[in-house]
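Lab notebook, design round three. We kept the backbone fixed and only want residue identities now. Task for the bench partner: fill in a sequence for the structure below.
Input structure tokens:
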């Protein structure tokens, strides 16, 4: 289909970018080994390899979602998931968790872990000083997870657009730290696979991503 061809073309472009950055740097260093700053060469090459690794992982997740397979669900404590992700995330800004101590839903644990991790990574990338991860029981059952930052935010008219694959914005929010514009696309697909919904709201200043999950995925236990 046209959509699949477009996706393959976009993916190939994203994969080519870090490779294009690595190749000339290594070629120059190899041609002039005595003049090369090898610690810097290795640092830059490693950063590009890590970018490639993240992109490949993201593409594999999207491929599995396109397959339409329904993974098994189990009881998941979203508060515990958020606590673990906050604890392991390296950030130059204040990162803290708020909300309830225990929030149980039935879900695909891998899906909800990636959702929270992607939202936290995105928020940390753009925050000025603070990221707050809030996990609470939903008013009508299920759970609400929000990740808020105090960065440049996203204009209201562009918030739906950023859930599309390979989307980057033209304003301050688009400054790139190695992302390929797949993080929020994956979040939306994974949240939908769990019967939930995700939206972006103004945090004044910054952005708040809000995920609402049902007690049990509407697609069933697989």
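Proposed sequence:
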């Amino acid at each position: 289909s046209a959509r699949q061809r477009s996706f393959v073309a976009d993916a190939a472009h994203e994969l080519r970018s870090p490779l294009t950055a690595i190749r000339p740097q290594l070629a120059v260093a190899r041609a002039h080994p005595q003049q090369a700053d090898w610690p810097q060469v290795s640092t830059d090459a490693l950063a590009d390899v890590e970018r490639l690794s993240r992109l490949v992982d993201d593409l594999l997740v999207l491929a599995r979602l396109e397959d339409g397979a329904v993974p098994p669900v189990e009881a998941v404590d979203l508060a515990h998931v958020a606590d673990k992700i906050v604890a392991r995330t390296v950030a130059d800004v204040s990162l803290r968790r708020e909300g309830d101590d225990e929030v149980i839903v039935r879900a695909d644990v891998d899906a909800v872990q990636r959702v929270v991790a992607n939202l936290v990574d995105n928020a940390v990338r753009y925050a000025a000083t603070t990221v707050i991860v809030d996990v609470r029981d939903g008013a009508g059952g299920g759970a609400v997870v929000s990740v808020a930052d105090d960065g440049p935010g996203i204009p209201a008219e562009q918030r739906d657009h950023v859930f599309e694959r390979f989307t980057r914005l033209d304003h301050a929010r688009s400054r790139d730290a190695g992302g390929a514009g797949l993080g929020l696309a994956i979040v939306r697909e994974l949240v939908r696979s769990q019967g939930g919904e995700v939206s972006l709201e103004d945090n004044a200043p910054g952005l708040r991503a809000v995920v609402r999950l049902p007690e049990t995925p509407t697609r069933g236990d697989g």
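Keep this in mind before ordering anything: The two ends are 28 Å apart (CA to CA).
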